[in-house]
From TrEMBL:
This is Amidase. Pfam families: Amidase (PF01425). Residues 26-449 form the Amidase domain. SUPFAM superfamilies: Amidase signature (AS) enzymes.
């Protein structure tokens, strides 16, 4: 029974709670017991909220017993990335410098999860200050990929990805500046959604790069991601990038079939220099949709050739501005990898930064034009597979390539444009999962989630789960 309970998706266990087949108290107690025991293996958690979580579970149980059901996630326990503030509790950003930082307020997204009745079980390991993709933390230790404990889980939301894939958390939130939701979601066989910039308010989330940061769900299923997005979306005047637009009922809007769907494929950038098996699996998922009534149309986005430089010039400049004073006063307290990146960010001139914004504007213009002719654009999420922990390179069809550059190459453009992007499992390359990325029109997460559901229906993972899951 224990394994069956932990293996459930967030919405499935939420339904069991709503129909009183199981109590939030029982679910939370079991989730905490398992997470504590499993953390020695995965190292996904940096802190637990045992007493607070049990109190929240008891409150949820009383509300549900009284018929006051808040929604599909009411009473469901989950942990959060450790750059999302929880009032009165330590949020470290997996850093030494903020090792004792306590916020006076919840992040907007955290407050919204509380309103949805979610039980918060703890904080999850991440790459220091969210600026990295292997989650090999000098302060909290490396996170291990539940599919292969020797492999990186991706980052910066690596603890989030590993926690959900290993059943230590039913769902979670990640943050994404160059792919940090989608990279670990793909590497851990999860569904990960970077919403449209402005859809989810970022107040109370420690920034990496103001104009590129996003908050979004990381989940076991498309339905879970839809429920999570519905819970956290909405305008907040305290975030200057928040946009006041209607919030759809993403969970209710799932369904239908792919007949008539027009899929855009950009060959020159998104299918260049890709692991051959990743490419085969992604194209197979597209062909499956075609066999069910979808059509494919080739699109061109020539300015994508500038996207890698544009992403780095923007993110490094903004991140270095945020950390500038600490870089002067206490550089030794940063991990060596991000200290180097912050120093590098100080080398960009104002001319470099502003030229990057011009390139960024052109990339967005071309993406918008391409999406005017198709419903979504599909591509691999990552061009390479997750390497061993400690490796600075990945393998690309027998040749070593820089890990950071490779991992953000296909995810970064959606941060530059602010367009929504979803990754869903596309299958297994050997014993490791592969992600398919779906990019959509601004504020049209409904279509992305619906299309992700079409891919999920074909069961590309053939029922396989991480060996280190419950």
């Amino acid at each position: 029974m224990a394994d069956e309970l932990l293996n459930q998706s967030a919405t499935a266990v939420g339904e069991l709670i709503r129909t009183k087949q199981i109590s939030p108290v029982e679910v939370t107690r079991r989730a905490l017991e398992y997470a504590h025991a499993k953390n020695d293996v995965i190292n996904a958690f940096v802190s637990f909220r045992d007493d607070a979580a049990m109190a929240e579970a008891e409150k949820a149980e009383k509300e549900i017993a009284a018929g006051e059901v808040r929604g599909p996630l009411h009473g469901v326990p989950m942990a959060l990335k450790d750059n999302l503030y929880v009032a009165g509790e330590v949020t470290t950003m997996s850093s030494k410098i903020h090792g004792d930082f306590v916020s006076e307020h919840d992040a907007t997204a955290v407050a919204k999860l509380r309103e949805a009745g979610v039980v918060l079980t703890g904080k999850l390991n991440m790459h220091e200050y969210a600026w990295g993709i292997d989650n090999n933390s000098p302060h909290f230790g490396p996170v291990h990929n539940p599919w292969d404990l020797d492999k990186v889980p991706g980052g910066s939301s690596g603890g989030s990805g590993a926690a959900v894939a290993s059943d230590m958390s039913y769902s979670t939130l990640g943050t994404d500046t160059a792919g940090s939701i989608r990279i670990p979601s793909a590497a851990n066989g999860l569904v990960g959604l970077k919403p449209t910039h402005g859809r989810v308010a970022k107040f109370g989330c420690y920034p990496l790069a103001w104009t590129l940061d996003h908050i979004g769900p990381m989940a076991k299923t498309v339905a879970d991601a839809a429920a999570m997005l519905g819970a956290i979306s909405g305008f907040d005047h305290r975030d200057p990038t928040s946009v006041d637009v209607p919030v759809d009922d993403y969970l209710a809007d799932l369904g239908g079939d792919p007949k008539g769907l027009v899929i855009g494929v950009e060959e020159d950038y998104f299918f260049r220099d890709v692991d051959s098996e990743i490419e085969r699996l992604v194209r197979a998922r597209i062909e499956d949709l075609v066999s069910r009534g979808a059509t494919v149309k080739k699109v061109q986005i020539p300015s994508l050739r500038y996207s890698e430089w544009t992403e780095l010039a923007t993110s490094l400049s903004e991140a270095s501005a945020i950390h500038h004073q600490d870089l002067i006063d206490r550089p030794q307290d940063f991990g060596a990898d991000i200290r180097f990146l912050f120093y590098l960010g100080e080398l960009f001139s104002s001319v470099d930064y502003l030229q990057a914004q011009q390139a960024r504007r052109q990339i967005k213009k071309e993406f918008t034009a391409a999406l005017g002719d198709v419903d979504v654009i599909m591509a691999p999420t990552l061009p390479v597979m997750a390497p061993d922990i400690g490796s600075a390179v990945a393998d690309l069809n027998g040749s070593p390539v820089d890990l950071v550059q490779a991992f953000i190459r296909f995810t970064g453009p959606s941060n530059l444009t602010g367009l929504p992007a979803l990754t869903v499992p596309a299958g297994l390359n050997g014993d490791l999962p592969v992600g398919l990325q779906i990019i959509g029109k601004a504020f049209d997460e409904t279509t992305l989630l619906r299309v992700g559901g079409y891919v999920e229906e074909s069961d590309p993972m053939h029922g396989r789960r991480a060996p280190n899951a419950a």
